[in-house]
């Protein structure tokens, strides 16, 4: 092993699996925001070569399809590698409320996503120069139409994330359908950009609006863009909990011998040996953001 390989291995071993996943979440979010600002610069700037082709709603259609595909690929890769790839604080909070993401990782993930968004926009400024701040580009910050007020934007952001997270929750409780999650989320993102983009802005991601708004100094409706997706994710988790089938009530045979002191009949031995419980997770591992097949057993990752 060369000295360079030894140094890289030492740096990897210095970070716990949880810390590496948080750093990866920062990098993925920064990368997606850099891509958002880059596409905005090359579509909406006065000298943009794509500006003459993609005008008005056609630009939102193209952006919706492009970022739907990009997010699908990122989420698919993240799920296959058992990393997170949320890129959205409301997603991390929603998965925690759905009890498939550890609560101790919610705050680090949200901080990584928000700071990653700021870093991604800053990297775009460094690469593309002052063009990203032109009025036509506006640092890629979204904004509603003039007839949209605060409550309209808040409602659109809430309903958008409510729909997306409800679909994700429906797929999470059926492990054989988990492979559909990346495509479903990608389709939701495409719809947000194509439908909500020209009207309310269609962010549905607090980090996606926070980074551009901070660089642009444009805080109009920022509260709605921050609160709406989180509220939608919380409502989706509550809806999933309300629709979850209740546990079967105990039968008379389970309760009667204990209540009146009648000895219970002997239980015959099982025809097969009991299943071996899954080994406990190593300290510092990060819970994947999908329900594993053994979710009916005692899972040390679930909280």
Q: Helix tally? A: 10
Radius of gyration: 24 Å
Sheet of most strands: none
User: Which residues form runs of ≥5 with pLDDT under 50?
Assistant: 253-262, 281-303
Counting DSSP E segments of at least 2 residues, the number of strands comes to 0
**Large-scale geometry:** globular
Helix content: 55-70%
Name the helix and strand elements from N-terminus to C-terminus, one letter apiece.
HHHHHHHHHH
| Average pLDDT taken over every residue | 82
Strand content: under 5%
Given helix and strand content, the structural type is mainly alpha
Distance between the termini: 41 Å
Structure description:
This protein is mainly α and 303 residues long. Helix content is 58%, strand content 0%. The chain has helices at 3-14, 17-44, 57-80, 89-97, 106-128, 150-172, 181-196, 206-216, 222-243, 252-260. The two termini are 41 Å apart.
């Amino acid at each position: 092993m060369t000295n360079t390989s030894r140094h890289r291995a030492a740096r990897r071993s210095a970070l716990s699996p949880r810390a590496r996943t948080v750093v990866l979440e920062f990098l993925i979010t920064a990368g997606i925001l850099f891509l958002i600002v880059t596409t905005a610069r090359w579509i909406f700037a006065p000298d943009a070569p794509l500006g003459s082709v993609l005008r008005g709603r056609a630009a939102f259609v193209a952006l919706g399809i492009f970022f739907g595909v990009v997010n699908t690929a990122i989420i698919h890769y993240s799920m296959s590698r058992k990393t997170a790839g949320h890129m959205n604080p409301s997603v991390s909070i929603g998965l925690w409320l759905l009890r498939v993401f550890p609560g101790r990782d919610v705050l680090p993930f949200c901080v990584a996503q928000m700071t990653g968004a700021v870093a991604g926009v800053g990297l775009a400024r460094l690469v593309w120069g002052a063009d990203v701040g032109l009025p036509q580009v506006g640092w890629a910050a979204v904004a509603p139409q003039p007839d949209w007020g605060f409550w309209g934007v808040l409602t659109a952001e809430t309903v958008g994330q409510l729909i997306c997270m409800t679909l994700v929750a429906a797929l999470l409780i059926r492990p054989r359908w988990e492979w559909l999650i990346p495509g479903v989320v990608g389709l939701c993102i495409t719809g947000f950009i194509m439908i909500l983009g020209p009207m309310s802005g269609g962010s549905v991601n607090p980090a996606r609006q926070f980074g551009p708004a901070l660089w642009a100094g444009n805080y109009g409706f920022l509260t709605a863009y921050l609160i709406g997706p989180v509220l939608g994710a919380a409502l989706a988790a509550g809806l999933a909990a309300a629709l979850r089938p209740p546990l079967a009530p105990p039968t008379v045979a389970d309760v009667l011998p204990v209540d009146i002191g009648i000895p219970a009949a002997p239980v015959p031995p099982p025809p097969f040996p009991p299943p071996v419980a899954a080994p406990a997770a190593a300290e510092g591992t990060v819970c994947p953001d999908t329900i594993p097949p053994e979710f009916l057993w005692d899972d040390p990752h679930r909280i």
